[in-house]
C-alpha cells in the first residue's frame, strides 16, 4: 500500500494541517513509511498573486521542513511528468520517506462557469489564452514523431466523447440508479427489499466482575517491586485501589478497564496525546 495525497498549491502552502502532518510523517507509530504528495500547482487560488499569498517562491517549500525531495516538473510535458512520478515512487519505496511532485501548470478557466479570472488577473490570463492546450501539444508531438497517426488520435477523441455523451444521456433517465457505483460500502444482503436494515444482533461484549477487579488492581499497582514512586502518584494509585475494592469507577478507571479488557484479548492499543504516558488523567 502506498499513500498518495493530492494537493492544490494554495492549500499546500496555506493549510496548517499540511505542515502538521509533515511533522508526524516520521514519528514512530504514526509513519505511513513515506507519502507521495502531488501538488497541482495551477494557481488555484488565482485571485491572489503568489507574492501576496506566501513568503517563498514555491508553494512546495513547506516540505523542506522534513528535507523531502521536491520535483518541479512542467505539466505541459506528460512524459517528463511520468518520469518524475516513477522516480518519486522509487524514492519512496527505497527510503520510506515523503516526496513531493510539483506539477507546474495553469488553469485555463475560473472557479466555475460564472467566474471570469480576467477581472483579477488580466495579464496572466492573456498569456494563458495564448497557450496551446497540453492535449493538442502532446498529440501534435506524437503525430510528428510517427508514434500515432492523426486518424488514431481522432478516433480516441471520438471514443472519449462518445463515453461522455452516453453517460449524459443515461443521466436523464432517472429510472436507472447505479447506486453501488458511488456508494462507499455496497454491503450485499445488509438491507431488505424495502431498503430497511435487517435486524442486527450484537455479540455480548461484557466481561466478568472478576476480570474487571483484576484490571483495576493491576491499574492501581506498580509493576516493579521496591520502586520508589512519587508521593502524588501513589495517592492516585491508592485511591484507584480503594475504588476497585468498593466497586466504584471514575472516568480514568473506566478507561483503564476498557483498555485492559481489549489488551487481555491480545489486541494492541495505541494511545496518542500529550499526557497519556503519565497516565494521571
What is the number of E strands? 4
Question: Could you say which structural class the secondary elements and strand pairing correspond to?
Answer: alpha/beta
Which strand order spans the largest sheet, edge to edge or round the barrel? 1-2-4-3
**C-alpha end-to-end distance:** 36 Å
Tell me the name of the CATH homologous superfamily of the largest domain.
Thiamin diphosphate (ThDP)-binding fold, Pyr/PP domains
CATH topology of the largest domain: Rossmann fold
Overall geometric form: elongated
Largest sheet: 4 strands, parallel
Q: Judging by the overall fold, what is the CATH architecture of the largest domain?
A: 3-Layer(aba) Sandwich
Oligomer: single chain
Strand content: 5-15%
| CATH top level assignment of the largest domain | Alpha Beta
> What's the alpha carbon Rg, rounded to whole Å?
29 Å
- Strand/helix succession: EHHEHEHEHHHHHHH
Number of helices: 11
Mean of all residue-level pLDDT scores = 88
Fraction in helix: 40-55%
Provide the low-confidence segments as ranges: none
**How many structurally independent domains?**
3
Organism: Struthidea cinerea
Family: Belongs to the alpha-ketoglutarate dehydrogenase family.
InterPro entries: 2oxoglutarate_DH_E1, DH_E1, THDP-binding
Domain Dehydrogenase E1 component: 2-179
Would you write up a description of this structure?
The chain has 281 residues and is of the alpha/beta class. The chain has 3 domains: 129 residues, 3-Layer(aba) Sandwich (Rossmann fold); 39 residues; 57 residues, no CATH class. It has 11 helices and 4 strands, in the order βααβαβαβααααααα. It has a 4-stranded parallel β-sheet with strand order 1-2-4-3. α4 links the parallel β3 and β4. α9 runs antiparallel to α10 and α9 packs across α11. The two termini are 36 Å apart. 14% of the residues are buried.
